[in-house]
Amino acid sequence: MPNIQELEDLATQVRRDILRMVHKVNSGHPGGSLGCTEFLVALYQAIMKTTEGFHMDGIDEDLFFLSNGHISPVYYSVLARSGYFPIEELNTFRLIDSRLQGHPTTHEGLPGIRIASGSLGQGMSVAIGAAETKKLNKDSHLIYSLHGDGELQEGQNWEAIMYAAANKIDNLISTVDLNGQQIDGSTDNVLPMGNIKAKFEAFGWLVVEIEDGNNIKSVLEGMTKAKSFTGDGKPVCVLLKTVMGHGVDFMMHTHAWHGKAPNDDQLAIGLAQNKETLGDY
Amino acid sequence: MKIYTNSGSKDTRSGFGAGLTELGKSNNNVVALCADLTGSLKMDDFKANHPERFFQVGIAEANMMGIAAGMTIGGKIPFTGTFANFSTGRVYDQIRQSIAYSGKNVKICASHAGVTLGEDGATHQILEDIGLMKMLPGMTVINTCDFNQTKAATLAIAEHKGPVYLRFGRPKVPNFTPDNGAFEIGKAVKLTEGTDVTIVATGHLVWEALEASKVLNDSGISAEVINIHTIKPLDKEAILESVSKTGCIVTAEEHNYYGGLGESVARVLSQNKPTPQEFVATNDTFGESGTPAQLLAKYGLNSAAIEKAVKNVLKRK
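ok -> structure tokens follow
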């Protein structure tokens, strides 16, 4: 397993990938991607147990589902840098004939992706289905999923949240990225969601809070704790507090960079704040 | 002409239930999901025999479609069961993204389609579902005509890799196709040989077409009746071969003419062999409460309506 420094170096490199990808095509979603960088790096490099290569059925390995598909830049970068496909392919993000579509899809056969996402609110149901199949197959590996906080405004999530607790889906760890931002502003301004922790607990989930979701060590500790809660008859929710745009000062603490690419000058500033560690693609 | 006899009226949904029961025994990967309509969908047997493979999701169809999509990952073959309205319109985006675009091997099994659902009225009588489903790339769309064919289709779709929409209904209708007959997805079944007109029908209207053909035959009109159980992919060859002989066609379906079988047939004809066509379908309308027979009559979907359409299309030859 990589050490903390190695994970941090990878996170920095992933940040550079994100910025360069969205800058090149002048589109994409850097804000949430930057905010979830530490989480996905930790998940793929240190938390999940995966097998060599990519197998859609994912037998005898942990699986991850990205529900908030718009943060595809961080997902693609982490997948590529975890060996699922060539890192150079990040160059094709959002271009014609690319496997790296604007939102993740199985349709173009990109290794690492098991479901299309982008239209919000569907990923938790899919993750539950995969978790049910794991149980039927007597496969003790875990299912992980990631959701935006604004995404919880989609009603399907609450159908899924109710189902998971009622059916004791205890091989599932669903993480909510609590960055408090969505396209039209802060979640509190757009549609206040109240106490999300209390809501999950009221629905019968176990909840783990990670206070600094942009700190690798905190993420590792929180996810390790979440893993220890599995197998106990209840689904596990991780509330991951992150800062949208983390690591690029002018992108932080605002919804402005949810779905906007930096210009040349802004890219230069962003890259200067995230020095090359493992080599650009 | 070949005469078909009713071996005893049964509901097509029971054909689905019987097929699912058989699949439960023969295929361990088949799992069934239901949104609080287990009895209506005739899934009780499967549930009783294989409780570990039956998933009651409650009144939450969107979640059901997502769970079904996820269950395919690891090799399961999920069959979802609810009414046609809640199997399509209510969950269109879930099917579009998580099942169709994701290429998942989910079988969407939809009962109570069309006006023959009856007294519950228009909120439940979807007449747009064939159109919704056939527009999705990669989706196979099947509408079966009787108990035996629905059972056979249920078995066949388990062997087919890819998403399928299987449409059937609530009322008891004549059962006239062979018991344990073969079901080939995408292959039309010619029921009668005829020379004057082709009648292409799907679902409950196949029997109505046969009834119409008998009356027409008595008045000297020779109708070739084709059962198109698979609307997508459509058996173009069967249609073109028949109209080459008859020179005109009537399509019959328990569905809005916008988006239905008739439009798919018209596209094939306009591209390959422009042919006079009349449509037996609902005329851009919602349904209403009533008995199935009353509704078929009022909305122009019974054998009398097919006879009338045949007479109209013959004048245009």
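DSSP finds twelve helices and 14 strands in chain B.
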